[in-house]
Amino acid sequence: MLGSPAIAQEADDDVAAPPSEPAPQNSGSRVFEPAFFTQFAPRNALDMVSRIPGFSISGGNDNGQRGLGQANQNVIVNGERFSSKSDSLRDQLARIPADDVIRIELVDGNTTDIPGLTGLVANVIYESTGPSGQFRWNTGFRAYNTEAQLFGGEVSLSGSSGRLDYTVSLSNDNNRFGADGPTLVFGPDGSLIEEQYSKFSGGFDNPKLSTNFTYRFGEDVTANLNLSYGEDFQFNNVPETGKPIIGPMRFRDVRVRENGPEYEIGGDIEFPLGPGKLKLIALERFERDNFTNDLIDSFDDDTPPDGSRYHQTNGEGERIGRFEYGWSMWDADWQLSGEAAFNRLDRVSALFTLGPGGEFEPIPFPGGNGGVSEDRYEGALSYSKSLSPTLSLQAIASAEFSTIEQTGAAANSRSFKRPKGSLALTWKPEDDLDISITAARRVSQLSFGDFLASVSLNDENENGGNNELVPYQSWDLELEVNKGLGKWGSVIFEARQGWFEDFIDWFPLEDGGEARGNIGSADRLHLELSGTLNLDPLGIPGARIDFDAVKRWMSVTDPFTGEDRPFSYDLIDMIDVDFRHDVPRTDWAYGVSLFSNNPAGYSRRFEIGRGWEGPTFANFFIENKDVFGLTVRANYGNAFGARNYFSRTVFDGPRPDGEVLFSEEVDRRIGPIFRFSVSGDF
Fold first, then answer.
1. Is there a contact between 560 and 508 (Cβ–Cβ < 8 Å)?
2. What are the TonB-dependent receptor plug domain coordinates in residue numbering (predicted)?
3. 606, 591, 582: which is closest to 663 by C-alpha?
4. Are the C-beta atoms of 95 and 105 separated by less than 8 Å?
5. Is 659:671 a contact under the CB 8 Å cutoff?
6. Per-residue DSSP letter, 246
7. Measured between alpha carbons, how far is residue 675 from residues 142, 476, 620 in Å?
8. pLDDT per position as a tens digit, 587-628
9. 1, 131, 250, 656: most buried, per Cβ within 10 A?
10. Which residues contact 31 (CB under 8 A, 6 or more apart)?
């Protein structure tokens, strides 16, 4: 069985040979048979896709995509895309047993009948062969500041009964994290005015029950039903001691709590109609968040305590209906689609101050209450055609019509019409070389929370609401080059240039405050190089290096100062390198990974700042794929002692005219991170 621990090489070989390179197919795809993955002893389809040389999973509707829309992921299953928005691509792939996978094809997205897919796409072909279960338990702890992470993982059961295929899973995505260290606060002249020490700890748990049912009414009629229900629990604690040069010692207690339920009901059915096939899709998703932030300062003299409380309840939902009708005509694949999406946010907020008697007393905060809704209708026509054995074309013409309404203290209603679409060409001059170019017009998804006011107590910031906010639009030009290197592996180069209109960042309000708003035009160039280097040719059988490097150049005009700067909180550069060695003729594997990233800072009306962690995270792991039939993995993380950093400068008035009020530098210890996981089948 492929899902059982296995040794990749035959015992009579003195030196193990690497898995054979997948053979090109007539369709222009590369096919990875199950035998290719044997040395990794995969448990599920996720383990297999993750081991495809040079391929990285990306996209999916869980990434905040506008409605369902055109496909944006690079993994499909049995020629179809996942439609759930609550479960990630990785979650869904992890529930497909490895024994059920027949093969994985790397195909040109243009040659599929799924509009929106471009570049290299992994198509997982599988068939349920009977009841099969798998489980994964993740646990661990950190040396400082946090409680142990005990109850992470997932158990799932997949199978079939007649025409029905089913998957049921119970999971808990969780983590525990923290850091401790000093914060130095400096005055306008650079002199130290206060030394603080804080100990940050937090965590989250997201227990969830997910089910998927697929029923085949006939050879050409298939229906899917996805159901999920979960609860979200998060907490942060930040006790802090402040020692000013002048004045009493201060003791700050900051607590954040968030919880609430979430569910999703989604389904689709596809059946023949006329010369083509019609697919109907429906989805209902809802999440409620109950958020509370308390901050209390007490002092070592007779100064009375000071504090604030902020409470917020959000109800956020999405309802989608969509049809897709595809047919073949003039040696091309056509699809006509339409979508109606109704998004909503209802928020109730309350702000309190600590009274003389030690009780929190309410203060007016009307801007934090209200609702936002968007009714959006979209239509699209797509055309996909193979122009030659090595050249394919995909064109999509689309338009959306939307109405955004806001209730509460800043009620408003606006309607929009926006054209969208894309044109993609893929050229495959050689069996191991794919080049795709895409030009697209896109519309972003708004964060409805930006329409309403909110506060951050610990940073002493208030975010105003903006009832004139509109989605930013962009023109995008994208290049992807995928080159196979034979027995050495493969490499992917990506270049993406975006030109943005109505770009969203921090924006000055007329009342002297600030909010998220549209600040004009912007542009960004993204370069990325990723791939896999097999070390078998160098005499290290079973070893490989996976790497990913990103560099971005950004330009936007700061609405406060008129200066050119990067996008707030965006990524400037990143490098991720992983070495893994599956030792031949054993069940052992070990490896090391190095990760470093450089995020941009932020720019607000009264302050600028930047938070990051580093400089470099190093993780070591060792794995055995057959411990009484289980895969056991131990991981030692942050071996190089990466730290948590934050710096900001606060001004006494709006920038650029305001004078420096104070600046602060945070330098916190994260410490070593230990992780342990056990996975198996049943």
1. yes
2. 37-113
3. 606
4. no
5. no
6. S
7. 9, 40, 10
8. 999 999 999 999 999 999 999 999 999 999 999 999 999 999
9. 250
10. 22, 23, 25, 103, 104, 105, 106
Q: Determine whether 216 is exposed, middle or buried from the number of CB atoms within 10 Å of its CB (0-12, 13-18, 19+).
A: middle
Selection from 466, 485, 415, 460 nearest residue 609 by Cα: 460
**Residue 635 and residue 620 in contact, taking contact as beta carbons nearer than 8 Å:** yes
Specify the length of the chain in residues. Answer: 682
Confidence of residue 3 (pLDDT cuts 50, 70, 90): very low
CATH fold for the domain made of 21-127: Ferric Hydroxamate Uptake Protein; Chain A, domain 1 (2.170.130)
Asked whether the beta carbons of 349 and 314 are under 8 A apart, the reply is no
Distance CA 641, CA 618 (A): 8
> With the C-alpha atoms ordered 460, 465, 469, 471, is the resulting torsion angle positive or negative?
positive
Angle made by CA atoms 543, 548, 550, in degrees to the nearest 5: 165
Is residue 242 over pLDDT 90? yes
The tokens 């100062």 sit on which residue? 561
Q: CA-CA distance, 448 to 452, in Å (whole number)?
A: 8
List the structure tokens of 350: 């309350």
Distances, alpha carbon 455 to alpha carbons 33, 52, 295, 449, in Å: 54, 45, 12, 12
CA 545 to chain centre: 24
Q: What are phi and psi of 99, to 5 degrees?
A: -65, -20
